[in-house]
Amino acid sequence: MENRLTKITSISNTSNSQPSQH
């Protein structure tokens, strides 16, 4: 369960960083 949360956070961080830099 913890691994799933970490993956979601990582994806959310990457998605947030992409539009912010664009």
Write the layout of secondary structure elements.
Layout lengths: L1 H20 L1
Brief account:
The chain is 91% helix and 0% strand. The chain is mainly α and 22 residues long.
Please give a handful of descriptors for the protein shown.
0% strand, mainly alpha, 22 residues, 1 helix, rod-shaped
How much of the polypeptide forms β-strand, as a percent range? under 5%
Terminal CA distance reads: 32 Å
Helix proportion of residues, in percent? over 70%
β-strand number: 0
Structural class comes to mainly alpha
Q: Report the order of strands and helices.
A: H
Q: What oligomeric arrangement do these chains adopt?
A: single chain
Give an overview of the whole structure.
Residues 1-22 are annotated as: Disordered. Residues 8-22 have a biased composition (Low complexity). By secondary structure, the protein is mainly α. It has one helix at 2-21. 0% of the residues are buried.
